Amino acid sequence: MNPLLDRFFQYLAIEKGLAANTCEAYRRDLLRFADYLEEEGISLGGVREAEIASYLYRVRKESLSARSLGRAISSIRGFFRFSLGEGLLSYDPTSHLESPQFRAKLPFALSVEEVERLLSAPSRQIPREIRDKAMIEVLYATGMRVSELVGLPFHSIDLAVGYVRCIGKGSKERIVPLGSSAITHLKRYLESSRPRLTGGRLSPYLFVGPSGRPLTRQSFWQMIRRYALQAGIGKKVTPHTLRHSFATHLLERGADIRSVQMMLGHSDISTTQIYTHITKDRVKEIHRRHHPRA
Rounded to the nearest 10 degrees, how much is the dihedral formed by the CA atoms of 244, 245, 247, 248? Predict the structure, then answer.
């Protein structure tokens, strides 16, 4: 498989936490697009707007439904935006690409009570679970992406001031507050757990596995799933679920959307605005359930 596509598929499954059926749909769409490019003798890195337009014309002729066509366009656009953001490609040929308009699927967020149960799941006083609890606390406190979390340098945190310096997509730096709970558990991890996990070896990473090696996104994803099941949360919980929960809970409690945008590292505020729909929908549901004449 093309290594660019392979990285994108891993991102969808692990960092975005998309369902297996959704990931498979993206895979089918993009492999079909890649087959077309191979027929035309065009590499993924050499695609321009004209090639995409030609491919979509072929797709339309095959009488796909508007929704299927929209998904095909979304798959292609998502791949090129990811590749551009990761520095894998230097040009996004889909920047002017239009697609059928459908209401965006709202991201899934945990309730505050479910988050509390998840945070309490790593309860044993052993180095690994002390580290796990600190990682989950930091993830919920900052809303960072899992790739940002596992790759945090040791020098990226300032516990005295209470912030973490995070390098996001496109090598953009942002500073996010940690909060008192995350600071408490980070201090505990640094004092009692990390030295035992590194075995006395030096490591440039904040969160480490055995012998000071960094954790992978896959291993953290599995960790989150294990603790969610342990906490009795039947929903599919991924690292990205905590990112959604972070944004949703801030907005529900009155945070302004610009601040949430900055903390999430979104370059476009329209990406952040989807969370306002979540909070509005929840207000409607509360009204429907509790108002005597709803």
Answer: 110
